[in-house]
Specification:
Elements lengths: L8 E5 L4 H12 L3 E6 L2 H9 L10 E4 L5 H13 L6 E4 L14 H29 L2 E6 L12 H21 L4 E8 L5 H14 L3 H10 L9 H12 L10 E4 L8
Parallel strand pairs: 1-2, 1-4, 2-3, 4-5, 5-6, 6-7
Length: 262
């Protein structure tokens, strides 16, 4: 089975580093034309240059701030109005700050919902007609294993990720007759800046070293290590391919066996 994304156009959000960039890089290796979307234009310029283009692909970027859904809506509508269509959409954005849900402030919920739910919704609305016309659509949401079991100390994130998962499942049902699939990837602890921030935050609260916190987290993972970003990207490549045409509305945990449920 050889995955080939040649002639496919992919929009990958939150893609200047971490999981988002790993997905964009793997898509490009498989022949896709990739558009990166994030808020930092300087990082976007650098990331685009680092994407493979062995098949003569054209990669570009769109600047948008996911904490401001109208910014995302305007940016993608401008892109689509230039007669550019996408076969693949990767919804991905940095997670909310850690903390107990009881202490969360209203603005924390609103910011998280704007970034993860409303921005994703606007992107789907803008791209789905093009997918329908091309007869090919793959929408993949990068969420979290907290969709299955809430993670301690990530109150706002747990709440928001659950909302995105329910939105995604509903969307999958509505778009299935069009042959457009909608699936969620649930990364476990993955070696990114986000993970390091969580580790450092826990270390400060628990009066421990970052090394001690890392060991405690690793002890909960049967495979005994954190995931690499490219390991998340491999699953995205499969779900974005023709081989996943009959897979929709599912959650795919990639966590080394950590999540304690089916």
């Amino acid at each position: 089975m050889k995955i080939d994304l040649s002639s496919k156009n992919a929009l990958v959000c939150g893609s200047t580093k971490g999981i988002g960039f790993a997905i964009a890089h793997e898509f490009a290796k498989l022949g896709a034309n990739v558009t990166l979307m994030a808020r930092n234009e300087e990082l976007l310029k650098k990331a685009v240059k680092d994407l493979p283009a062995a098949n003569g692909q054209i990669h570009d970027y769109v600047v948008a701030d996911f904490s401001k859904p109208q910014s995302v809506k305007q940016a993608i509508e401008t892109k689509v109005q230039s007669n550019y269509t996408y076969h693949i959409l990767i919804n991905n954005s940095g997670g909310p700050a850690p903390g107990p849900v009881l202490l969360a402030k209203e603005e924390e919920f609103l910011t998280a919902l704007n970034a993860h739910l409303l921005s994703s919704h606007y992107l789907v609305q803008a791209l789905v007609n093009g997918m329908k016309q091309m007869g090919y659509g793959r929408i993949i949401n990068i969420i979290s294993t907290s969709v299955k079991i809430p993670l301690k100390g990530l109150g706002v994130s747990n709440t928001t990720r659950g909302a995105v998962a329910s939105w995604s499942k509903t969307l999958a049902t509505e778009l299935a007759p069009l042959g457009i699939t909608v699936n969620n990837i649930l990364p476990g602890a993955t070696g990114t800046d986000r993970l390091q921030q969580i580790i450092e935050g826990k270390a400060a609260k628990q009066n421990e070293s970052s090394e001690e916190v890392s060991k405690e987290m690793l002890a909960e993972i049967p495979m005994g290590r954190f995931a690499e970003p490219n390991e998340i990207a491999y699953a995205a490549c499969f779900l974005a391919s023709e081989f996943a045409a009959y897979i929709t509305g599912i959650n795919v945990p990639i966590d080394g066996g950590r999540t304690g449920c089916l």
